[in-house]
Amino acid sequence: MPGPVFRRGEAVELRTVEAADAAFLASLVNDPQVRAGTAMTTPISEGDEREWIESAGDDGEVHLLACVDSDPVGIAGLNAPNESFGSVELGYQFAPDSWGNGYATDAARELCAYAFETRRFHKVYADVYETNPASARVLEKVGFAEEGRHREEAFVDGEHVDIRRFGLLADEWVEAR
Q: At what angle do helices 22-30 and 46-55 cross, to 10 degrees?
C-alpha cells in the first residue's frame, strides 16, 4: 500500500514511496516500453528497488509514487539538486496502461509547484530521448521550453539518439500559473 499523500493534483496523488512498493517499481522499470524511454539498461530486481527506496532522499532528492484511487500508476521525482545553481532535474516513469490520461503531466506540474514554491529552486530541467515525443509533450504542457540538444548522446534500442534538454525557470512558472 502506498504511503501517505504528499501532494494532490487534479488527476494523481503523489504519495511517499514505501518498501511495499518495490514490486510495483521493479515491474515498472523492467517494462520494455518504459525502459525504452529511460537510461535503465539492466534488469532491476525487487531487492534492488528496496535498497533504492531505503536510500532515496539521502542527497536531497524527492521521489513520489503517483497514484489514482490509491493504486500506483507511476513514479515521479526531483533528482539530487544542485544547490549552488538552484536547479533540479525532474524525472518520471508511468505504466504503459496509464499513458494518455494526463497523469504524467499532472505529476510533473505538482513537482514543479513543489520545486518552485516550497523548495525555492530557480530552475527545473529534464532530459528526453528524441524517440520519446510523448514525454517531451508532457514537459511542454507544463510550460518547459526546449533549450538544446545533445546529439547522439544516448544509445537506445541499438541506435544512438539525441537527448533533448528542457528547462523551466521560476519566473516562467509564476507567469504560467
A: 110
